[in-house]
Specification:
The protein is α/β, with parallel strands linked by helices. The chain has helices at 8-21, 63-75, 96-100, 147-160, and strands at 3-7, 27-34, 38-47, 79-88, 108-115, 118-128, 136-145. It is 29% helix and 39% strand. It binds zinc ion.
Length: 161
């Protein structure tokens, strides 16, 4: 099972975003680095939900916005490691539409359940497979990195370099 590491700041930010946009879906990108077992996400970027026609159960990031997010990631020495969106008053399980609209094989897709305006369960799914035809979601474990640990680790990195 792959592991998605999230800093506690990212975890709090994406949950807050889901509460902010309730009863509509929120969506955004996750920036980080690859690890042996998955991704370590260090930043999240809010995106505008382009699905204004049916924002309660569809989400989408405009291509132009995605280009800007990729540029931001590169500028910070990070890559796009996945995406997140919320499910207002619905479980944190992926839908057939979620799978159809997921195209980044090897990336993580987080779903945040928001129940009556409050963020509830958070699940992550790795988009596994090689092509559009055999892609599938596999559940992964979320590991929250406490900010104290993150600070300690970045200090250690700074000393060793
Ligand atoms: Zn969904």
């Amino acid at each position: 099972m792959s592991v998605l590491q999230l800093t506690s700041a990212v975890y709090d930010a994406i949950r807050a975003h889901g509460e902010e946009t309730y009863p509509h879906e929120c969506c955004g990108a996750l920036l980080g680095r690859r690890t042996d077992g998955g991704w370590r996400i260090e930043a999240s970027v809010k995106a505008r939900n382009t699905r204004t026609d049916s924002a309660r159960n569809r989400y989408g990031i405009a291509p132009a916005e995605l280009v800007m997010i990729e540029r931001e990631a590169r500028g910070r020495g990070l890559s796009i490691g996945g995406f997140y969106h919320s499910h207002p008053d619905h479980s944190a399980e992926w839908s057939p539409i979620d799978l159809a609209e997921a195209h980044w094989v090897g990336c993580s897709y987080i779903i945040i359940a928001v129940a009556q305006g409050k963020a509830a369960a958070v699940n992550s799914f790795l988009l596994a497979g090689k092509t559009e035809e055999d892609k599938r979601f596999t559940a992964e474990r979320i590991e929250i990195l406490e900010s104290r640990k993150t600070r300690f680790e970045s200090k250690k990195r700074a000393q060793s370099s």
